[in-house]
Amino acid sequence: GDSTQILFVTPEQLDSKSKWGPQIIEALKGKIDLLVFDEAHHSRLDGGSFRPKYKDETLNDVWKKLDEPQCLFLSASLSRAAKRSLKRIAPDRTQHLVKGPLTRANVTLEVRRFEGKKAQEEKMASICLLIQFMKQQLGIQKIIVYVNRPARVVQMVNELKATGLRKIYGVHGEQEKGKFLSKQEIEANQKAFEEGSSGVMVCTSAYAEGIDVDAAGVIVADLPVNLETLYQMVLRAGHQGQPALSVICDDQKSRDFVRYALLKDEKKCKTFEQDFKFLLKGRDLWGGLTKKFL
Fold first, then answer.
1. Is 181:154 a contact under the CB 8 Å cutoff?
2. Which of 193, 194, 213, 280 counts the highest number of beta carbons within 10 A?
């Protein structure tokens, strides 16, 4: 009888400048009934360092070359801005959207602000105390700490180890390998954390996408560049449905680094400020998440 054939492929493989991209596109042209985009919120983010080819103009080019098939977009953190970006990939008449729920009654969200000259010292001390509190008082044995660049992964790992904490691991993105942690170190750290019964994983946002780890504690030590990535980070907690705690650390140095080192663009900086204004006003953008502003 009839059977459904599924081809799994990445945007990088379909890029016109890749080794096999043009050949793959030509072989599939007119033969695709449904084009599925997982993690569709990336189309708004212009890929970033994690997925530089995952942006709306690249995906629109792929869609056209495949003779404009029906599209299915999948995401658990699709904002209004990301939805607008999807329209630049394919028009509404070809779109089907599946958006996962952001309501997680098992997750408690806290936002901690750090201000003044000693903000960085206080933030680091708070992170250490949070890890100890999660482990000793809440019984949370697996904790993820998110930072904003590979150098911060190494710095945070060393600082946490210096306090006497054990089983501290570090991971950063595929494109950043070799600069700070080798491929072997990253693979060994990821395996030890995911297969172990306890530990602290210090990582960049690359470890927020598509992973299924039973961590019940998340600390966002540095703000990411956008709200979609923050959703992905805080919802790593309680992924298996267990009671969980996510804590966002908000400080001026973290915001300034995003503005001047990562974005470097006035329009993108304005979007960043709009995304994160809830941290200033205490607005609840988290649906069913229990929210505490400290």
1. yes
2. 193
For the segment 168-194, the average pLDDT, to the nearest whole number, is 81
How many residues appear in the chain? 294
Contact 96, 70 (CB under 8 A): yes
The 10s digit of each residue's pLDDT in 66-125 is: 898 998 888 766 666 677 778 888 877 677 766 655 556 788 888 888 988 899 999 999
Q: Which residues contact 101 (CB under 8 A, 6 or more apart)?
A: 76, 287, 288
Structure tokens at 194: 């995911």
pLDDT, residue 5, reads 86
What does the alpha-carbon distance between residue 239 and residue 260 come to, in Å, rounded to a whole number? 33
End-to-end CA distance of the chain: 60
Beta-sheet strand order (sheet of 217-220): 168-171, 199-203, 142-146, 217-220, 244-251, 107-114, 290-293
DSSP 28: H
What is the C-alpha separation between 105 and 252, in angstroms, rounded? 30
Helix, strand, coil proportions of the chain in percent (round to 5)?
40, 20, 40
Q: Are strands 244-251 and 217-220 parallel, antiparallel or unpaired?
A: parallel
Integer Cα distance of 172 and 159 in angstroms: 17
